[in-house]
Specification:
- The protein is mainly α.
- It folds into 2 domains: about 80 residues, no CATH class; about 230 residues, no CATH class.
- The protein contains 13 helices and no strands.
- α1 runs antiparallel to α2, α4 packs across α12 and α10 runs antiparallel to α11.
- The longest helix is centred in the middle third of the chain and has 24 residues.
- The chain is elongated and about 80 Å long.
- About 35% of the residues are buried.
C-alpha cells in the first residue's frame, strides 16, 4: 500500500479523532444539536491511530504523516489518561464504575483464570478426600500435622499459628498479596507463570480442604474460610486474569511491538489489579477478626458468608452498568 492509499483509507478516522479531541480539549465549540462525544469511540480511534502510527513508522512513510499521527496519539493519550479527580471523588468513581467495568471487559480472562484455579481445587480435593495419604504429595508431614492441629476441636486459635489478631492481620496481608502478585507478575513469562501459580494454589487449597474434611475437621475449616474467601479467592482470580492478559499481549501483540502491546495491556488491567488489592485487604481483615472467632456459631458465619459471596458477584456483574 502506497502512502497516498494509506492516507486516503484512514484520513476520515484521523479527522474524526481530531474533531473529538478539539471538543474535549475545548479548542472548538461543538455545533448545535451535535451528539455528545462518546468515550468508547475516542478510545477505539486512539488505539487504531496507534496502530496506524506503528505501521507508518515501519513502512517509512512521509514525515508529515508521522507528525500528524504522533500529534493525534499524544493528544488522545493526554485526554484519556489524564487525572481530573482526586481524593474521595476518584476513589468513589473507581469503585462504582472503573473497577467492575474493567472486570467485565476482561471477562474471558476472568473465566479462564477461575477455571485454572477452581478445577484443580475440586479435582485434588476429591482425590485427597478419597485417599488422605495423597496430602503428602502436596505438603510434607509436618505441615499436614500443623493443619490438623489448627482446625481441631482443641485448637486455642482456629486457623492460625499466632494469637494476636493484629499480628495475623499483617501476616494475611503479606501472604495474600504475595499469592496475587505471583499470579499477576507470572504473566511476564508469556503467561506460563500465571498458569503455574493458579493451578498450584488451586491444588494446594483443594488438598488441604479434602484432607481436613476427611479428618472430621470440615465444620471448623469451612466455617473459617467461607467468609473471607469471597474476597480472597475472587481477588486471586482477578490477579490471574490480569496476568493472563499480559501474557496474551506478549505472545500475540498484533500490529503493535511487544513492548507497546505489554504497556497497553498493563495500563488496561491496572484497575483490576488495584481492585484486587482492595479486596485482599478486606479478606485479610475478615480472616483476622471474623473468621477466627471461635465463639461465633457456624450458622452465623455461613449466613454472613452467603451475603458476602452474593455481594461480591453481584457487584462485579451489575455495578457501573448504567455508567457504561
Amino acid at each position: 500500500m502506497t502512502p497516498l492509499q494509506f492516507e486516503e483509507r484512514y484520513q476520515a478516522e484521523w479527522n474524526e479523532l481530531e474533531s473529538a479531541l478539539d471538543r474535549l480539549l475545548q479548542r472548538k465549540r461543538a455545533p448545535k444539536n451535535a451528539p455528545a462525544v462518546q468515550g468508547e469511540r475516542v478510545a477505539l480511534l486512539y488505539r487504531r491511530a496507534c496502530e496506524h502510527l506503528a505501521l507508518a513508522r515501519a513502512r517509512s512513510y512521509p514525515a508529515y504523516m508521522l507528525d500528524q499521527l504522533e500529534r493525534l496519539t499524544a493528544n488522545a493519550h493526554q485526554v484519556i489518561y489524564q487525572r481530573r479527580e482526586f481524593g474521595v471523588a476518584s476513589v468513589r468513581r473507581f469503585l462504582a464504575e472503573d473497577f467492575p467495568r474493567t472486570v467485565r471487559a476482561d471477562a474471558r480472562y476472568v473465566w479462564l483464570s477461575a477455571a485454572l484455579l477452581y478445577i484443580p481445587t475440586l479435582i485434588i480435593g476429591w482425590l485427597v478426600y478419597r485417599r488422605p495419604d495423597l496430602i503428602l504429595s502436596v505438603v510434607d508431614a509436618r505441615t499436614a500435622a500443623m493443619f490438623d492441629q489448627m482446625y481441631s476441636d482443641s485448637a486455642t486459635a482456629v486457623g492460625r499459628a499466632a494469637q494476636g489478631d493484629w499480628a495475623m492481620f499483617g501476616f494475611y496481608i503479606r501472604h495474600n498479596i504475595g499469592i496475587a502478585f505471583q499470579c499477576f507478575a507470572g504473566g511476564l513469562f508469556a503467561g506460563i507463570g500465571t498458569l503455574f501459580y493458579l493451578i498450584y494454589n488451586g491444588a494446594l487449597f483443594g488438598a488441604v480442604a479434602g484432607y481436613l474434611t476427611m479428618r472430621g475437621h470440615g465444620p471448623t475449616f469451612w466455617s473459617f474460610v467461607v467468609t473471607h474467601s469471597a474476597f480472597e479467592l475472587t481477588a486471586i482470580v482477578l490477579s490471574g486474569a490480569a496476568g493472563l492478559k499480559i501474557g496474551h499481549a506478549l505472545v500475540m501483540p498484533g500490529r503493535l511491538t511487544r513492548m507497546q502491546s505489554l504497556v497497553e495491556a498493563t495500563r488496561n488491567c491496572a484497575p483490576v489489579v488495584a481492585g484486587a488489592a482492595v479486596m485482599l485487604l478486606a479478606a485479610a481483615a475478615l480472616e483476622a477478626f471474623w473468621s477466627s472467632a471461635s465463639w461465633l456459631p457456624h450458622a452465623v458465619k455461613y449466613t454472613v458468608a452467603a451475603g458476602c459471596w452474593i455481594a461480591v458477584l453481584g457487584y462485579l456483574t451489575f455495578q457501573g452498568r448504567s455508567a457504561s
